[in-house]
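Notes on consecutive records. When two proteins share a document, each keeps its own sequence and its own token line. Never mix them. Below: protein one.
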Amino acid sequence: MKQQSKGISQARSRSSGTEARHATGDDRSRSSQAAKTLLQQWAEAVEGYFGQLPARYPAAPPRLVEAVQYSLMAGGKRLRPALVLECWHACQRANSIHDRAPTHSPAGINPGATPKGAPLAAAAAMELIHTFSLVHDDLPAMDDDDLRRGRPTNHKVFGEAMAILAGDAMVTMAFELICTDAEPALAATLVRELASATGPAGMIGGQVLDIDEVKRPENLEELQTLHRMKTGALLTASCRMGAVAASATPHQLASLDRYGRHLGLAFQIVDDLLDQTATPEQMGKATGKDAAKGKMTYPMLLGLEEARRQAGQQLASALNSLDGFGVEADGLRAMAHFVVERNV
């Protein structure tokens, strides 16, 4: 794990200062690479944790475990668990520097501390919830997709019934992991955050609005409301859960909440842009399906250029939300740039 910690620390160094705040040209390229390195390093930590999950369920039907692992270990950006862990790190390091006596050097702090307990359990739980939502989204009754991350969707491999049950299992596993592996003093708050973001006023409620063929969003405010629930709720909760796992101050929690809300909208705007401009080979899934179904998207409502401008505005607001942090949040700044500037 020392090599992993070193890689995370080096990635933050490359994303520090004005590079992450005002990235242009070569700076933007370095910031993007720093974000990719952080995502990879945090993904390795979470996937190592996932690799141990089958052993925790020896009595579970093997086919069910196989279906869960098929989607859970299918790769992807791992953005949500990375946000949990990066927000945890930012608060942990900021508070360690603040609490350290003036005679001590901040250089003594380990910037690449390996997560365990609450932050790792919260990150894994968030990815379980996200993966369950993808498995169910792909079903014929929802988006009816054949590909996810470049390979057949869960129901195409295991059948619709097993895909539904695998998604159900991932939901219960998410909350079990928090209750089992997080420190007792933090577990209830983490469960509440995750449940609220997932439930009827969060992601699932947003999904209902998204499939409602009677009342489609008709303006920017209604479209943002839908996406604050459908996409933004889990991204915001990722930031909040990282802060909770680090016992953040109320000010830090509020700052990361604002960061997550703006990042969530930016993410969805870029997703809509890519759905219209990227190829299925680039995305690893079908594209152009929202337009075919008559769903409202940011490019359809605003046009491509205005949608890109809106994404830039959300990026600027996300970065401004981190003004209360110093260099300890440079990883989050680099990740925000990555979300807006990605091409997949």
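Protein two starts on the next line and is unrelated to protein one.
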Amino acid sequence: MSGFRPGRLFLLDTQPVRVPVVMLHSVVGFRADRPPTFPVWCPPPMFEGYLAWMKRRGFSTITLAQLHDHLAHGAALPRKPIVLTFDDGYLDTWVYAAPLLRKYGFTATVFMPSDFVQPGETPRPTIEEVRAGGLAEDELEAFGYMNRGELRALAQSGLIDVQSHGKSHTWLPVSEEILDFHHPETPLRHLRWMWWNRHPGKKPFWFTAIDPEGVPWGTPIYRNELALAGPAVTPDPGLERLLTAHVEQQGGAAFFERDGWREELQALTRTYRASHPPAARPEDAAALRARLSGELRGSREALEAITGRPVRFLCWPNGGTCDTAFALLAETGYLAATLPSRVRQPINRRGTDPARIGRISATSFFRGTEKVFPWVLSFALKVERNRGVGWAELPIKAIWLYRRVVPPSGGRPIGGEI
């Protein structure tokens, strides 16, 4: 289907093998016990549809180590190779995704942020126990992150390779510019990282444990960036003490029911800064390297201690990275890292940099529907285009034009990020 190439007449390799590397997140649906903080990316029927299509089309899953050996040294690959990757290490990777992979004879990689590994050495029940009649599906624990025992079992079985998604997977202040002040309606995109940084031991349980009161009311929300994306700053703690004490004295959460509360905190900030001007400076090169090195090496060593298997590949948390972080990969024990989704993704084939892994997203063009076929169609088109199959480009362009006029719809947002 990829077109006639004269070289085939002479059995010549006129086009290097292109290896799609697919990015997935969670594989779980809309259950009654789903925390409102937990987004749904790919319900199990859609993921099984992907696997069934791959099986029919003759794909073979490979590991990132196999991909790297091919890119760097020309190692042989099976026919129609593909890499499946899961970001974040959600519990449903163990509960739903792993049993489905086993059913279809495929393997995958999970990128796990080491700070989010749940304690516990006992693997929890999976959908296989439900199918065997041992318990009902709504009795499965499905939301949160995998524990130590589950990661170890996956790694040792060879079913899912455990690799690094960094250590903290958080955001840090990058200047003393204040975007807002923490209040009862603080968006989750800000609340979560402020809460994580104050309660690092609770991060594995944050989907249910996060509480707006876990960050003092009135805390400044500083301009921030992903922790691995560049230099951070440490803002003046005195300003936070002043603002949070003022809010507490004025009634705590009730303070924010008053008109003009934001302007009141801004005025207090101006008064404080008249005698304590912002003085925080971004980390210098040495401090940045030390922090990034600790993140990268710390995650690798923690995961290797759990699984007993080498960790040599990294996926940047939320795509946050910088030149310094990339330069530290080899020094901290990694062979390669994925590229952020916001940059142009390279095709994974001989002749490309083996330390840079390009990925395609499994998010469906039709994510507003709960029908399986449109999701599988979207997945198939993305994979085939990435493999270099020319005909896939036309329907993708047609769907893109259609989506410009008719955006994804549906009562439940599948595939959205928080």
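For the record: The chain has a mean pLDDT of 92.
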